[in-house]
Amino acid sequence: MSQAKAPTRFCLIRHAVVAPEYLPILYGQMDVPICPSRLASDGRRYAALGAVLPKPAKWVITPLSRTRATAEAIMRAGYGPAEVQVESGMIEQDFGTWQGLPMSDFANRPTQHPFWPVGGEEIPPEGESFKHLRARVGATMETLAKSYAGETVVVVSHGGAIRAAIAEALGLTSDQALSLAIDNLSVSRVERHGHAWRVVSLNEQISI
Question: 188 near 182, Cβ under 8 Å?
């Protein structure tokens, strides 16, 4: 009997908290920096992540600097250096002309989700819906699973993209996916077994 092939394992990490002046706005694909004071105060969390993340692993970030800064902080805190691959398919949802607007502008809209200012099926002007995000992230995860079959991949990405990956794995609706909590510096683990996805954990809080 042939031995079963090892699954491809993914550790999906949401980037660190962004600078406070950007928290009240819908920043989406804007290239906003992470918070310098939180970078210093969260040192123990970075060290904990560096201690528990698997080695060896392929590292993937998005084109936005907050994912690179988060990955580099984890490596400096004890994981050690690793080459990173930039993958645009794992970038945050594109909110089009709504990017940069205050979150307060989206309050009490009929299409608003209970936990997010933009509904799951809603298409922002000149942007993409969460449904489109799911298709993009799903295709990217499939490509990564084939490229690194049987290996471990650490992906530092964004809350929306990680929700999209979980939604594709579990067959959730867009509105159901938007109800998932994905906190900054949390880890969610999924595996690709042949043609099937398996969710191992969601929104792990790694701390010492």
Answer: yes
Residue 73 in domain: yes
Number of domains observed in the structure of the chain: 1
What is the residue type of 135? A
> Does residue 18 contact residue 66 with C-beta atoms inside 8 Å?
yes
DSSP state of 2: P
50 vs 156: CA distance, rounded Å: 13
**Per the domain annotation, does 7 fall within a domain?**
no
pTM, to two decimals: 0.95
What tens digit of pLDDT does each residue of 97-109 get?
999 999 999 887 8
Quick one: three-class SS letters along 56-107?
CCEEEECCCHHHHHHHHHHHHHHHCCCCEEECHHHCCCCCHHHCCCEHHHHC
Alpha carbon distance 180, 175 (integer Å): 9
Domain with residue 140: its CATH number is: 3.40.50.1240
How many whole angstroms separate alpha carbon 42 and alpha carbon 147?
33
